[in-house]
Amino acid sequence: MKIDVLGCGSAFSLQQNTSAIRVFDENQQLLIDCGPTIPRALWQRGGDVNDIDALYFTHIHPDHCSGLTALLNFWKSFQRQKPLIIWAQREQRPVLMQLANLANWPQTSLCFDIEWRDSEPAWQWQGWQMHTAFTHHELPNLALRIEANDQTLFYSGDGRPTPQSIALMHNADLAFQECASATALPAHASHGDFPGCLALYEQLHLPRLGLYHCNDAALPALELACTPWPGLFVSRDGLAFDLSRRAEGCA
Ligand SMILES: [Zn+2]
Ligand SMILES: [Zn+2]
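Above: the input record for the complex with zinc ion. Below: its predicted structure, written as tokens.
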């Protein structure tokens, strides 16, 4: 399983793209979240309009989903053919459908089919085992665990860890956890913080934990705070990982 960090900035970051990562192997490709600055990051990588098989949305805050319109419009403009699967929370799907409708308005269809699916607690997708769990956030946010070929990825787009989302981090080869602040936030806060992330890194013996979706102002302090911990790092746009090699590579 390979991971490409398209964007890991906070909602209004001046330094980094908004949220999305690409997860792929030789058979399939998944885009998790699609913030407003993500379509250009994808175009900059080249590739084919049929490369991405499916999208997964953690939640529908605009910094995680509003790139959908431009992405679908691009695929329509360049004649994508492959059907697209979109997983989202059932209650949030109507908003995503509005974004999709805008991609080719006033026409009501695209040149490829979209198959809308509900994010369930668990399902299988062509050999990948998917599990979801809620974090604590302003909107319901579903963190995702993907297991494939003895490799495990955890991604929490946004929100403070919960016992349920922490359970999905166990034995992950690579985890991304939202971390808004270098200093502790109140226990009821809807965002993660460095003390909480460090505790998870140590308690779960995570080999690699990427602090994700950090506020720009917190980045210098977070970089400094990570230095004693070899597997703890601040995510950056363009980071690339190949979990089959069990070693981090940077692009
Ligand atoms: Zn959010
Ligand atoms: Zn966000």
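Notes for the reader.
The chain has one domain: 2-250.
The pocket of zinc ion (ligand 2) is lined by residues 11, 19, 61, 63-64, 158, 213 (CB under 6 Å).
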